[in-house]
Amino acid sequence: MFFLDSNASAPLFKQLYNQMREHILLGKLPPDSKLPSVRDMSNNLAVSRNTVDGAYQELFAEGYIYSKPRSGYFVSPLDQEAAPRSLLSKPDNQAPPLQKAPLYRYDFHPARLDQASFPNRLWRKFFLECLRENPQQLSQYCDPQGELELRFSIQSYLERSRGVVCDPEQIVVTAGLQHSLDIVANILKREHSSVAVEDPGYPLTSSVFRNHSYAIAPVPVRPDGIDLDILNAGNSSIAYVTPSHQLPLGYAMPVANRLRLIEWAEAGENFILEDDYDSELRYSGKPIPSLQGLRPHGNIIYLGSFSKVLSPALRVSYLVLPRSLLANYRSLFKYHFSSVSQLEQRTLAKFMEQGHWERHIRRMRSTYKKKHDAILRAIKEHFGSLAVVDGHGAGLHVILQIPGATCSEAEIIRRAEQKGIYLFPFSWTCASAESDTTKLMLGFGGLTINEIEEGIVLLAQACH
Q1: pTM for this model (two decimals)
Q2: Is-contact 54 13, C-beta < 8 A?
Q3: What is the largest CA-CA distance in the chain?
């Protein structure tokens, strides 16, 4: 009745359990029918009694069979219509095929980092130090807002480099920007229902707030930032902006418009979500100070991350809450625990305390500037007057406009894929209709300078 394969990856007892469960669910073993004894079943299948006993014990624990004293095991009566699907839809020795992401020779995704950029040696050193110094931390939960040492380091860094004015108690360490936005959406939803987002802009923001039942109001972006006239005319009471390096167009909001945006927030008790996207990676002049620093006690929630310069795999970001929201935050999240590994937080704190974070930023700024300049040279050489570059001078990507393109973005992406090139669709950042000019979003962080040159040559061929 049952067939066991000693060469299969699944243990013999599990094979027997799966087949018996299947027979019970399909009614091939009638309700209340008596099962063979462990000894008889082991003799029939030529396996050990432990194998049969293991299968019986698991079936018994899950309620598929029951026992009677001195009588053995019997099949439990089950509702056949409510029974789950078969376990045996595939043989025990066949695993489902893994769907691997396609590999591209030239990956122009805008969020890729230099593959040799992570400070492995230092990180390993500080990680092991944290284990040696405080092994009992593995049996404890850390502060819900994040390790205090890390929050002190973040506060000190933000004050020096970004002009953010805050105390460590206002900082919450989060597991990425998505987690930060999720926290903010929960804090504000009691009194707010509509979020204005940049168009084009970061699609994740709209997705997170939409999942919290907010209305999303796309507002066009101009060279001086989000259109404040349209924002003022709308009904949104929250505005998500990337003022230091607009995603994806790369514009920087001038101080006059920053002050107007702050006035909008103060006049209507509205909130600004300032995502300081790519703020560290500015290749000429000093980084632009934060919006929050202009009004430290205003309704501005500052969002930052270590993903774009250090590593997205660590999943460490942070938000700075205005004091007016701290009580609400603590009320909503008082039973929550930190979602970021305590060991990683303490390692990062050491990394920052000893000055390595800012040295790492300077090194990455130099590395990415070379790549930034390389992609501009390659575009100029191989596209010439056929293309215009926007959004350069900062960050990890540029926008390539092709005014005379004879084919659509989708067609260029298809042709590029055939040449081993990945392009992140610019249209994914657009909430409204696409512009008349074909735009391509070209990230350069994860490519070598030679790969940038080779990839742009092939891309130019795909665009013609």
Answers
A1: 0.81
A2: yes
A3: 91
* Helices 177-188, 326-333: inter-axial angle, 10-degree rounding: 100
pLDDT tens, residue by residue, 128-170 = 999 998 777 778 888 999 999 999 999 999 999 999 999 999 9
Nearest to 400 by CA among 432, 420, 375: 375
Sign of the four-CA dihedral 437, 443, 449, 455: negative
**Which residue carries 């940038």 as its tokens?**
452
The position carrying tokens 């990890």 is 396
Q: In the structure, what pLDDT confidence band is assigned to residue 4 with cuts at 50, 70 and 90?
A: confident
Cα-based distances in Å from 331 to 38, 183, 198: 57, 12, 30
Helix ranges (H only) for 120-273 are 120-133, 148-161, 177-188, 203-211, 228-233, 255-268
In this structure, which amino acid lies at residue 306? F
Q: Quote the tokens at residue 297.
A: 């006690």
Per-residue pLDDT reduced to its tens digit, 114-129: 999 999 999 999 999 9
Phi and psi of 424, rounded to 5°?
Answer: -80, 120
State the pLDDT at residue 85.
Answer: 58
Contact 122, 438 (CB under 8 A): no
Location of structure tokens 């919450």: 172
Q: Are 203 and 429 in contact (CB under 8 A)?
A: yes
Report the C-alpha gap between 226 and 196 in whole angstroms: 10
Higher pLDDT, 120 or 287: 120
pLDDT at 391: 86
Two tokens, residue 244: 């230091």
Given 3-state DSSP classes, what are the helix, strand and coil percentages for the chain, each rounded to the nearest 5? 45, 15, 40
User: For position 418, what pLDDT does the model report?
Assistant: 95
**What's the CA gap between 406 and 292, in Å, rounded?**
44
